[in-house]
Amino acid sequence: MSNRIDNLLHEARRFPPTEQFAADAIAGADLYEAAENDRLQFWADRARELLHWHTPFTRTLDWSNPPFAKWFDDGALNVAYNCLDRHVLAGNGDRIALHWEGEPGDSRSYTYSELTSEVKRAANLLTSLGIRQGDRVAIYLPMIPEAVISMLAVARIGAVHSVVFGGFSAESLRSRIDDASAKLVITADGGYRKGSVFPLKQAVDAALAADGESTVSHVLVVKRGGNEVEWTEGRDLWWHDEMVAVDDEHVAKAFPAENPLFILYTSGTTGKPKGILHTSGGYLTQTAFTHRSVFDLHAESDVYWCTADVGWITGHSYVVYGPLANGATQVLYEGTPDSPHPGRWWDIIQKYGVSIFYTAPTAIRSFMKAGRQIPQQFDLSSLRLLGSVGEPINPEAWIWYRDVIGGGETPIVDTWWQTETGAIMVSALPGVTTLKPGSAQVAIPGIQIEVLDDEGHDVGLDSGGLLVVSEPWPSMLRGIWGDPERYKETYWDKFGDKYFAGDGARRDRDGDLWLLGRVDDVMNVSGHRLSTAEIESALVSHPMVAEAAVVGAEDEATGQAVVAFVIVRASQADVATADEASALLRAHVAEQIGAIAKPRTVFLVAELPKTRSGKIMRRLLRDVAEGREVGDTTTLADTQVMQIITDRLK
Ligand code: WTA
């Protein structure tokens, strides 16, 4: 690891902005100055400049009860109004908000006027179903316009959405519905993925059929896949039937700036996903600001495309809230990058003239592997800015991205942030920063980042430490749903009133940040966060498994891959061959959590390496998983264990 980092730190290529780009850029160096002079004033100015406040705020930050922050808290606004109505009122109603492209090739575009009407209708529909301010609504949809419409309709009436990624299992959906006591679920019959329809309604049925009283009174179903669905009379309603029955007039009411906007579940170090809570005014300020300045959005002329699913934070902040608050025209695509042909994404860029493109390193690496001849068949000359998010982008991938996709000219912004931070925290500003491949570079204006050692001292330049955000920021999480203690413990206990992000980082001699991966038991597989503990508990929920340990092993394609070590119960030891057992357990994890959590490899072992206090030494298992010589075993309770494991796996 440290060798690799040293190589990275010697990366010498530099890309300053062209004169033209700098001259036309939305964000200039003056933003850093303004933020340095008066950070709170800087954010207050952004909030006023970028949003419409029904009731202007007078207080910027209340940090009197850390770590519970309040931003702009005596102000009131409506998030959906900010994303829709005000653009129509400003005369931009005919501007396209969404160019939606379905995987099978169908497409629909919505102007800001049309999207506003749809959201107004949906807001009336939700109200007619009894949803009120503060109620939770679970959204389990494919990447179709109704996903965006649902989120904004929930926001419009001051309710709280909890979007669950469509790839998650019925079991994962159930635990999220229960944790938030959702009253309503919005889903679809199915959606398209890799050329066929995957069922969603079926998973909702399974999630709601489980024992115990459900808080869910209705399930709204969008017809998308056309697949057969079962129907529970009185509970299930077709979206299209209900939407025509309601009015498209709806006056947006203002809600306090700290009104909860959404809960989004993410993996932590324990088995139970955390419901990260975000609120309205601060969140929208920072998503709008970063979307505009980091992506240099010229709303009248740019066509923006972020490939993230709305089931992840990137989809919340940079598909829905940031771009729509800024009045952007964007592409929304339902399917996978390679359906029905490996150039589908590039085809879409060509078709809509996409100028700003935001995706993840894992996708870039897979395109690199498939070869440049695929993108080269398409006209990508409309692109003028590229972005990356989710994991470190290695310099080779960065250069390939710029050369092959960006025509050797476009700047690339590598953006570091998290579900918890709500919006981009570290990134270049493309008209200002000289770019350095592989480094996420600098804190955005108004954000304070430090790299500290375990005792909380600054590690200085050129040495590794822990990434910390040292001042509260507008789009910070406001807590973990229903668990304030866990919120404090996870993020704030380590450094007092500084936020501990869980990432390792290093600053080079220019002061640029290099992200070094997670320092906890969270893995990053294809840019998706997975918890070792969560997968371990899925594995041990199978009757065959006595004990399980999961590690993230380096993987060329996915960044990290899930590798599991499993002890099979003696009574079950010969029910299957090792290969069968391992296939069975991989499928079991997919069923319990979702396909993204499926281990790449399941090793059946007789023992697990543990310290005398019983803690599994994952470091040693990672050595095995990555095919390395096993490291220091002297702190093991039984020093022979690793020998037994490696012998068995030979
Ligand atoms: C990682 C995704 C390096 C990091 C927005 C973080 C990154 C976790 C980058 C959050 C980046 C995200 N460079 N690492 N540009 N962006 N990460 O919550 O480990 O799904 O803690 O949010 O992804 O993942 P999450």
TrEMBL record:
Catalysed reactions, semicolon-separated: acetate + ATP + CoA = acetyl-CoA + AMP + diphosphate
Residues binding ATP: 390-392, 414-419, 503, 518, 529
Gene3D superfamilies in alphabetical order: 3.30.300.30, N-terminal domain of ligase-like
GO BP of this protein: acetyl-CoA biosynthetic process from acetate
Enzyme class: ligase
Span of domain Acetyl-coenzyme A synthetase N-terminal: 30-83
CDD domains xref list: ACS
Post-translational modification: Acetylated. Deacetylation by the SIR2-homolog deacetylase activates the enzyme.
Binding-site residues for CoA, renumbered to this chain: 193-196, 314, 526
Record's keyword terms, sorted: Acetylation, ATP-binding, Ligase, Magnesium, Metal-binding, Nucleotide-binding
AMP-binding enzyme C-terminal domain segment(s): 534-615
Binding site for Mg(2+): 540, 542, 545
InterPro entries: Ac_CoA_lig, ACAS_N, AMP-bd_C, AMP-bd_C_sf, AMP-binding_CS, AMP-dep_synth/lig_dom, ANL_N_sf
Cofactor: Mg(2+)
Residue span(s) of domain AMP-dependent synthetase/ligase: 89-481
MF-aspect GO terms: acetate-CoA ligase activity; AMP binding; ATP binding; metal ion binding
Any one Gene Ontology cellular component term annotated for this protein: cytosol
EC number(s) per entry: 6.2.1.1
Domain of life: Bacteria
Residues with N6-acetyllysine modification: 615
Family: Belongs to the ATP-dependent AMP-binding enzyme family.
Summary of the function given for this chain in its UniProt record: Catalyzes the conversion of acetate into acetyl-CoA (AcCoA), an essential intermediate at the junction of anabolic and catabolic pathways. AcsA undergoes a two-step reaction. In the first half reaction, AcsA combines acetate with ATP to form acetyl-adenylate (AcAMP) intermediate. In the second half reaction, it can then transfer the acetyl group from AcAMP to the sulfhydryl group of CoA, forming the product AcCoA.
PANTHER family: ACETYL-COENZYME A SYNTHETASE, ACETYL-COENZYME A SYNTHETASE 1
Designated name of the protein: Acetyl-coenzyme A synthetase
Organism: Agreia pratensis
